[in-house]
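User: Can you predict the 3D structure for this chain?
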Amino acid sequence: MARRRLRKACRNCKTIVDKGGSCPVCGSTDLTMKWYGVLFIIKPEESKIAKELNIKRKGVYAIWIL
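Assistant: Here is the predicted structure, written as structure tokens:
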């Protein structure tokens, strides 16, 4: 059985963090493993969702953080 990688999400900017103890985008150390849904932003300048969520960088984001 394959092991699932445990990823954390930044409570500040919702970026999904693969490894390390801080967010590579905002530098926050307030990370949580309690999040749901994944949002892939490829072209934030053209995305209505990115504008709605105030996301300015491409990346992988959590939709809902507990």
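Residues 8-65 form a domain with the Rubrerythrin, domain 2 fold (CATH 2.20.28.90). Helices lie at 48-52.
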